[in-house]
């Protein structure tokens, strides 16, 4: 008589508060406790429930690079609950949920290939003079607002948000007369940090969708210089992006590219103000800017976790038995503070090299706009601190608050004066 092997027991679910101000202000102690639990832990998250979370650098890297066993589409992994979460969206807005970050092979390879062809036409180094001019224009408006508000001005609202949005308008090649309304709609979307906020933003999203469809038609008849036209013209083996795929790509640029960059700029300013000696060293020698921005990306880790992956089949990963359809999340912030990869990870070191952080992810879904985001952050910091060398907080440091949104280390406001 044979005895079946008992099914392996899942590890107990652990709880860490990843939304509290204490965690957002100083995440390093909590991240260390998470890694101490193991490279892959079972953790309970608000709304989502129990999920697997990769905590170490190696586990995060392995998870993100293994697109054969871990996929983006929950339906293909048999997870019907996760697959149905987006069904509440109006049908007219469904295209924005089909961008390439949630596509698997071979669809992802097709979309990424077409988008890469368009991006190659947008040389970031050649764009730098224009990026600097846009930063200066945003700083002019910041100075005007500060003159009307001697008690202080919100750097996030008046500079960190409008500057990357101006870059996106420039990148897409939108007509100058359309940029104010586009910026207004897009800004509303980027402020939607909760489910309620998203619901309030739906009218603006609908207007933005209508505008983009009309602009695609206009640029079909009269092409402009810019990424939107390049995306429309990108072709590989006779294949092109559909209109819905174009819309999804623009929204990805707005939500992933714009939000990440604006919070990286604002968060970097706060970190540098928290480290005045390193700020003085940077402003005395801007040749440090490239390595400084890489370190600020690692240290802040605005995107603390990735979008979920799903196990394609029953498998073993990092010594744990994973069932088909189970959700796995990579904790980028924990990977970026793993002492096995980074010496003294809880200390800011603007000279840190090498600095192979995973702030932009890894594998086939790594951020396509990483170089542009680094350039925007570098330019924003250099122009800001050069123009306002006496920049300081306008409120006590204890009053600075981060958003409660899980998975993102973004500021609510950054009041400054000079």
UniProtKB/TrEMBL annotation:
PROSITE patterns: CYTOCHROME_P450. Belongs to the cytochrome P450 family. Keywords: Heme, Iron, Metal-binding, Monooxygenase, Oxidoreductase. This is Cytochrome P450 107B1. Pfam families: p450. It is an enzyme of class 1 (oxidoreductase). SUPFAM superfamilies: Cytochrome P450. Its EC number is 1.14.-.-. The lineage of its organism: Bacteria, Pseudomonadati, Planctomycetota, Planctomycetia, Isosphaerales. It comes from Paludisphaera borealis. InterPro entries: Cyt_P450 (IPR001128), Cyt_P450_B (IPR002397), Cyt_P450_CS (IPR017972), Cyt_P450_sf (IPR036396). GO terms for molecular function: heme binding; iron ion binding; monooxygenase activity; oxidoreductase activity, acting on paired donors, with incorporation or reduction of molecular oxygen. The keyword Oxidoreductase applies.
């Amino acid at each position: 008589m044979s005895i079946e092997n008992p099914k392996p027991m899942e590890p107990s679910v652990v709880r860490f508060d990843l939304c509290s101000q204490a965690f957002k202000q100083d995440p390093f102690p909590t991240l260390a406790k998470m890694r101490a639990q193991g490279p892959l832990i079972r953790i309970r998250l608000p709304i989502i429930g129990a999920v697997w979370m990769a905590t170490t650098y190696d586990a995060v890297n392995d998870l993100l690079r293994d697109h054969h066993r871990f996929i983006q589409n929950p339906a293909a992994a048999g997870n019907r609950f996760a697959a149905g979460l987006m069904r509440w969206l109006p049908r007219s807005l469904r295209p924005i949920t089909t961008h390439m970050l949630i596509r698997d092979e071979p669809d992802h390879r097709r979309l990424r290939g077409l988008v890469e062809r368009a991006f190659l036409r947008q040389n970031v180094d050649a764009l730098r003079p224009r990026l600097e001019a846009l930063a200066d224009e945003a700083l002019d408006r910041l100075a005007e607002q500060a003159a009307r508000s001697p008690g202080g001005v919100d750097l996030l609202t008046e500079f960190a948000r409008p500057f990357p949005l101006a870059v996106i308008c420039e990148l897409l090649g939108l007509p100058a007369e359309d940029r104010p309304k586009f910026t207004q709609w897009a800004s509303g979307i980027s402020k939607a940090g909760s489910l309620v906020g998203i619901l309030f933003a739906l009218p603006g999203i609908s207007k933005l969708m209508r505008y983009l469809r009309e602009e695609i038609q206009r640029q079909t008849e009269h092409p402009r210089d810019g990424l939107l036209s390049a995306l429309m013209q990108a072709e590989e083996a006779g294949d092109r992006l559909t209109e819905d795929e174009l819309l999804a790509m623009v929204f990805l640029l707005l939500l992933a590219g714009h939000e990440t960059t604006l919070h990286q700029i604002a968060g970097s300013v706060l970190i540098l103000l928290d480290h005045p000696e390193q700020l003085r060293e940077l402003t005395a020698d801007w040749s440090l800017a490239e390595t400084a921005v890489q370190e600020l990306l690692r240290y802040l880790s605005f995107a603390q976790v990735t979008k979920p992956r799903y196990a394609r089949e029953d498998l073993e990963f990092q010594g744990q038995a994973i069932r088909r359809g189970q959700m796995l999340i990579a904790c980028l912030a924990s990977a970026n503070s793993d002492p096995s990869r980074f010496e003294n990870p809880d200390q800011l070191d603007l000279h840190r090299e090498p600095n192979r952080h995973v702030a932009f992810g890894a594998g086939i879904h790594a951020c396509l706009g990483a170089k542009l985001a680094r350039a925007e952050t570098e330019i924003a910091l250099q122009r800001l601190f050069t123009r306002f060398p006496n920049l300081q907080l306008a409120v006590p440091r204890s009053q600075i608050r981060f958003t409660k949104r899980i998975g993102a280390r973004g500021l609510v406001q950054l009041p400054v004066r000079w």
